[in-house]
Amino acid sequence: MGPALRITRDALTVTLSGLSADDIALLQKIFLVSDRPDRPGFEIPEPGVFTIRGSAHQLRICHERLSRHPQAPRGICSLFSSQLDNYLRSDYKIALRDTVLDLGSRTHVMGVLNVTPDSFSDGGRYASADRAVEHAREMAAQGADLIDIGGESTRPGADPLSEEEELRRILPVIERLAAELPLPLSVDTYKASVAEHALKAGASLVNDISGLRFSPDMARVIADHGAALVIMHIKGTPRDMQQDPVYTDVVREIGSFLAEGIEIAVRAGVDREKIMVDPGIGFGKTVEHNLAILDRLDEFRTLGRPILIGTSRKRFIGSVLDIPQPDQRLEGTAATVALAIERGVKIVRVHDVAQMVKVAQMTDAILKSVHSS
After folding, report:
1. Nearest-CA neighbor of 341 among 106, 111, 184, 140?
2. Distance of alpha carbon 341 from alpha carbon 335, whole angstroms
3. Is 234 within 8 Å of 283 (Cβ atoms)?
4. Looking at 169, 213, 274, 314, which residue is catalytic?
């Protein structure tokens, strides 16, 4: 495995790993010559690893020194430059039909609309088209910025649904909402043919839980329609994903999966500026994995794409708080939403829109105050 770079939020820490002894000796030579009091901190915590800690300005100076050195490994220079720029970026704008989501201005809220009889969170409450449309209206009135419409349950252990049945459930809802609501509509599907019909019916975003892995035509369909895309991480399939998932480094492995998904999409013609990423909380992860992902969410910022997160009412919250009923996990969801926003998430996918809009507004206000002080 070649050199890897990791950036964390604690005073901005760049961790270069997979280095040779010669690489580390060279980095020491490049960076440790300065005796200025504002020099960044450097450390070699273990063999093959070199860390640099400092402000964004200090790290940019480090990169300039590295890039000017004739013997500096080019791979490390390019990693340092691109990933630091990505980590610090916040000016994301996603074009969705007639709407532009300015994700740099505030956190956006995606309302969940499960048009399924077997949803884990709402027990099929919105399985009929009329009830689904009514609930979408309610979420729009409560402040949702976009609506995510799904016709197939992807809860742990769920069996696949036929394309015909999935379309029967969601198309009438998408068609009615596209004609009635000004909000952008997302379709939650991993099937290319379902995505194509949904985009023709009025959706402008595809939320693919498989990260483009389950349907080889998905990226092409999205590109053909000029649609936006959420690439989510999953380990396995909904049917088997919770059967003892194992990772060496859960965040690094998810990051690699998402980076590969971005490149799959771009090669197929999807506009990179219309791609979002989702680490897939609960999709092939233990409670400990999910908590580690939340703690290290900011590391996904190095991908250079806005992060979407879906923790709402999920099983790991119930496990931590000992609450078996999904609709009783409001406070636990609120804690994860606030933390996710602090870590740099731009869109939160939630069931309880009215409450989470307030959580997002309050968290945004705190962060704005901190950054302006």
Report:
1. 106
2. 10
3. yes
4. 314
CATH number of 4-88: 3.30.1360
Handedness of CA 53, 55, 56, 57 (dihedral sign): negative
What residues in the chain have per-residue pLDDT under 70? 1-2, 9-10, 33-38, 118-124, 373
Task: For residue 352, give the nearest of 135, 169, 149, 102 by alpha carbon.
Answer: 135
Q: What is the DSSP letter of 281?
A: T
Question: At residue 167, what are phi and psi to the nearest 5 degrees?
Answer: -65, -40
The residue to which tokens 């389950």 are assigned:
214
Q: Is 314 a catalytic residue?
A: yes
CB 88 within 8 A of CB 56: yes
pLDDT tens-digit map of 127-182: 789 999 999 999 999 999 999 999 998 878 778 899 999 999 999 999 999 999 99
The confidence score (pLDDT) of residue 239 equals 83
Q: Which of 289, 219, 299 is nearest to 252 (CA)?
A: 299
- Residues 336 and 316: their CA atoms lie apart, in Å, by 11
What residues does CATH 3.30.1360 cover in the chain? 4-88
Measured between alpha carbons, how far is 46 from 44 in angstroms, rounded to an integer? 6
CATH of 93-372, one of 1.10.300.10, 3.20.20.20, 3.40.50.300, 3.30.565.10: 3.20.20.20
Where in the chain do CATH 3.20.20.20 domains reside? Answer: 93-372
Q: How far apart are CA 351 and CA 110, in angstroms?
A: 9
Q: Which residues is 186 bridged to in the sheet?
A: 148, 205
Active site residue 125: no
